[in-house]
Write a structure and sequence with these properties.
single chain, alpha/beta, UDP-N-acetylmuramoyl-L-alanine:D-glutamate ligase, 2 domains, 8-stranded mixed sheet, 6-stranded mixed sheet, 15 helices, 17 strands, globular
Length: 443
């Protein structure tokens, strides 16, 4: 294997969406690799929404403080190389192939020893951990793939565990209640860890507290240990005042939209403070200039990302009601569109009705479509559900995403009511939807 395309094909042959929740295989592979995940400390991040944005912000803050970083997130938008970054940059094709050549023969051995082969996510996780050890990095920021306790990343036993907001999602694997899901996600908390948690629903609090007590972890939560004290809109983002463990950080520009991104920034800051010892009692305030520089350089592709103007087209990967509620709130606060046209394509196993109910009050028209994802809901079925929520006069059905975007642009440019204010287009519903739209639209 000397060619990235061939490596990518071999990875995808493992089943891009196949899941098998058994840490035995990844543990065996990492043992053969010499346990690279033990070569550096980590910040481990789980939650229902906001994991990737929080990971990107935490990594940017760590780099601003002079540390060499690794970042592992998923899924990717354009290339698997995005999942594995060193010093803020995805592995280039040469380094990715080199890491794969190290891992692949040992993965084949593990496949032969177990009844089911390693998954795509298992192998990319091992690739990330090996690449970080080879770099080497000072710290890795690692996002959970799904859940926590049984996720392949849960071999880290990280000194800092982070919980972003928890809601209902992936119920077929994690359980039907928020308490069940919180129990699964709290599984990333290990002996003696420092736990940084965003504000959580009441049902999630008890499982988190129970896990912390079981393993002797120290919990700091939004609202007591840290918080967003203030935020104001600014061109290209927002300006924040954040309270950390030892004081306030003022005039922090964040080039991302929405109150939920401000919350993610506060969580990321608390995680970095915990990692650097600010929350231990001996530490002091982080360098405010480094905090400002780190968050000013943060990015979150596919999260209310503007890719076109006239009409404005925004891409957002919200894929469940919890995430869509945050997106809708940010749209109302920060984007004063005269009319909003939504292009929606979702996976069939998601709470489509819940997402449609949130979009109906803010969208003037909805274009229902589909992607090529194996689990994608067919456009006709999504259109039928949308008709019931919006009424048929406010719904258009297009079989493909390119046709849907073209239809949305035509609707945005047509203004029969003469309504004041520019029209905007939101393309949303899943990471796959956003990834496909970015390939069509992003500069």
């Amino acid at each position: 294997m000397s060619d990235f395309a061939a490596v990518n094909a071999e990875l995808e042959a493992r089943g891009f969406t196949r899941m098998a929740f058994d840490l035995g295989r990844i543990e065996a592979l990492l043992d053969l690799l010499g346990s690279p995940q033990r070569a550096y400390p980590s910040i481990h991040i789980t939650g229902t929404n906001g994991k990737t944005s929080t990971a990107r912000m935490a990594e940017a803050l760590l780099r601003a403080h002079g540390l060499r970083t690794g970042r592992y997130t998923s899924p990717h938008l354009e290339t698997v190389r995005e999942r594995i970054s060193v010093d803020g940059e995805p592995l280039d094709e040469h380094r990715f192939v080199a890491a794969y050549q190290e891992v692949a023969p040992l993965a084949a051995l593990v496949d032969g020893d177990f009844g089911e082969p390693l998954t795509y996510f298992d192998v990319t996780t091992a690739l990330a951990f090996a690449a970080f050890a080879d770099a080497p990095v000072d710290v890795a920021v690692v996002e959970v793939g799904l859940g926590g306790a049984d996720d392949s990343t849960n071999v880290l036993h990280a000194p800092v565990a982070v919980l972003t907001p928890i809601g209902l999602d992936h119920t077929e694997w994690l359980g039907d209640t928020i308490a069940d899901i919180a129990t699964a996600k709290a599984g990333i908390i290990h002996n003696g860890a420092t736990v940084v948690s965003a504000a959580q629903p009441d049902e999630a609090v008890e499982p988190i507290l129970r896990r912390c007590a079981e393993v002797g972890a120290t919990l700091t939560a939004e609202g007591t240990g840290f918080e967003v004290l203030g935020r104001s809109l600014a061109v290209g983002g927002q300006v924040l005042t954040l309270r950390g463990f030892r004081g306030e950080y003022e005039d922090v520009f964040l080039p991302l939209h929405g109150a939920y991104q401000a919350q993610n920034a506060a969580v990321a800051l608390a995680a970095v403070e915990s990692f650097l010892g600010v929350g231990t009692g001996a530490g002091r305030l982080l360098d405010p200039d480094a905090v400002r520089a780190g968050l000013a350089g943060a990015s979150a592709p596919g999260r209310l990302e503007r890719v076109r103007s006239a009409p404005a087209i925004l891409l957002d990967a919200a894929h469940n009601p919890h995430g869509m509620a945050a997106t809708v709130a940010a749209l109302a606060e920060e984007f004063r569109f005269g009319r909003l046209i939504v292009v929606l394509a979702m996976l069939a196993d998601k709470d489509v009705a819940g997402v449609l109910a949130l979009l109906e009050p803010v969208a003037d028209h909805l274009v229902a479509t589909s992607t090529g994802a194996p689990r994608a809901m067919r456009a006709a079925e999504l259109g039928r559900l949308a008709d019931a929520e919006f009424g048929p006069d406010r719904v258009t059905v297009c079989a493909t995403l390119p046709d849907a975007i073209e239809a949305a642009v035509a609707l945005a440019e047509d203004n029969p009511d003469g309504r004041m204010g520019a029209a905007g287009i939101l393309v949303t519903g899943s990471v796959v939807t956003v990834a496909d739209a970015r390939r069509l639209l992003a500069r």
